[in-house]
Write a structure and sequence with these properties.
By secondary structure, this protein is of the alpha/beta class. Helices cover about 40% and strands about 15% of the residues. Bound molecules: ligand PBG.
C-alpha cells in the first residue's frame, strides 16, 4: 500500500464535518417559484401532469405566494391564462389583462414579495406561438420584428402594474433591446430584465403547455428556440442579450443542459438563472408517486446539481417543498 494512503473518507464520517466542507449550498432565497394565474374566483384547478401545481385565481395566488414568501422563497414568476385568446395575444399586453391585475393584487397584499412577470405571447395567442404569425408570404412563420413591439408593450404593462422584474421568454432576436428601450422611455429604468437567453426547443416543456394551455396549434417552436444539440450558440445568445441590456440570463431547461449552464456561468458577466422546467418536475413527481424514488432526496440532489453547475438562482416548481426541506435540516 502506498504511503500515505489518501484517506478521503476522514471528512465524510461526521455529519458536521460533511456540513463544514460542503462546496455547494442551497438557500430558499435562490429559488424562484412559477405560478399560473387564471380568471375567476376561488379557482384552484389542478394541472394533471404537474401534481401539486394549480391554475389559481388571483386571491388564491396571493395566498400561495404569501406562503412561499413566508418560507423564504426568493421570488415568484407569473404566467397568465387569459379568458380569451386571439391572433395577436392582446390579453398579454392589455393593462386589464390577468397578469397586470395579479401583480397589482400581489404588490398590495404582499409588498415585499419580489414579483417577476414572464413576457411572451404563447399563453395569449389562439395559435399558441410565442409571436405574431405571418399570413401571405410568410405563412405560418413567426414574425420577429413585428413581435418585438408587442413584447415591449407587454413589459411596460407589467412594469406599470408594479412588476419588480420582467423575463422575456419568446426567443425573438432583439427582444431584450426592444424591452429595455420601451421600459426606459416610460420611466422604468430601474426595472431589471431576466432574459431567457439560452432557451432550447425542448420536449421537457410538455406539462407546462398543458398548464398554460399554450401548445402551438400547428408546427413547433424549432424556428425560434435553440437546437438541443448546440452549446456554443448558447454563449452567443448570452453575449448578445448582455449587450442588449439583460441584467440576468437564463439557461432552460436545466438538467439536460448542465454543461451549457456551466459554460455560461463561467463566462457570463451577469448572474445566471436556470429553469428546472415542468417536465423535469413531473418526472420526479411521477416516479415518487409510484414509490420508485425518494422525492426529497432526488429534489435536493437535482437542485444541488443545478447550483453546482453554476446557477446563481433556480426557477423550480419544487421551490416551497425545497424551502421546507432546507428549514428542517437547518
Ligand atoms: C414560453 C414559456 C414556456 C415555458 C416558460 N415560458 C413554454 C414554451 O416555450 O413552450 C416552459 C416552462 C416549463 O416547462 O416549466 N412563454
Amino acid at each position: 500500500m502506498p504511503f500515505p494512503l489518501h484517506r478521503m473518507r476522514r471528512l465524510r464520517s461526521h455529519p458536521w464535518a460533511r456540513e463544514m466542507v460542503r462546496e455547494t449550498r442551497l438557500h430558499p432565497s435562490m429559488l424562484i417559484e412559477p405560478f399560473f394565474v387564471r380568471e375567476g374566483e376561488r379557482k384552484r384547478d389542478p394541472i394533471g401532469s404537474m401534481p401539486g401545481v394549480f391554475q389559481l385565481s388571483i386571491e388564491n395566488l396571493v395566498k400561495e405566494c404569501a406562503a412561499a414568501r413566508d418560507l423564504g422563497v426568493g421570488a415568484a414568476i407569473l404566467f397568465g391564462i387569459p379568458a380569451a385568446k386571439d391572433a395577436h395575444g392582446s390579453e398579454g399586453y392589455s393593462e386589464r389583462g390577468i397578469v397586470p391585475r395579479a401583480i397589482r393584487a400581489l404588490k398590495k397584499e404582499i409588498p415585499d414579495l419580489f414579483v417577476i412577470a414572464d413576457v411572451c405571447l404563447c399563453e395569449y395567442t389562439d395559435h399558441g406561438h410565442c409571436g405574431l404569425v405571418g399570413t401571405d408570404a410568410a405563412k405560418g412563420s413567426v414574425l420577429n420584428d413585428p413581435t418585438l413591439e408587442l413584447l415591449a408593450k407587454e413589459s411596460v404593462a407589467y412594469a406599470e402594474a408594479g412588476a419588480d422584474m420582467v423575463a422575456p421568454s419568446a426567443m425573438m432576436d432583439g427582444q431584450v433591446m426592444a424591452i429595455r428601450e420601451a421600459l426606459d422611455r416610460r420611466g422604468f429604468e430601474a426595472v431589471p430584465i431576466l432574459s431567457y437567453a439560452a432557451k432550447y426547443a425542448s420536449g421537457f416543456y410538455g406539462p407546462f403547455r398543458e398548464a398554460a394551455q399554450s401548445a402551438p396549434r400547428f408546427g413547433d417552436r424549432r424556428a425560434y428556440q435553440m437546437d438541443p444539440a448546440n452549446a456554443r450558440e448558447a454563449l452567443r445568445e448570452v453575449e448578445l442579450d448582455v449587450e442588449e441590456g439583460a441584467d440576468m440570463v437564463m439557461v432552460k431547461p436545466a438538467l439536460s443542459y448542465l454543461d451549457v449552464l456551466r459554460r455560461v456561468a463561467e463566462r457570463s458577466p451577469v448572474p445566471v438563472a436556470a429553469y428546472n422546467v415542468s417536465g423535469e418536475y413531473s418526472m420526479v413527481k411521477a416516479a415518487a408517486e409510484k414509490g420508485w424514488i425518494d422525492e426529497e432526496r432526488i429534489t435536493m440532489e437535482i437542485l444541488t446539481s443545478i447550483r453546482r453547475a453554476g446557477a446563481d438562482v433556480i426557477l423550480t416548481y419544487h421551490a416551497r417543498e425545497a424551502a421546507r426541506y432546507l428549514s428542517r435540516h437547518a
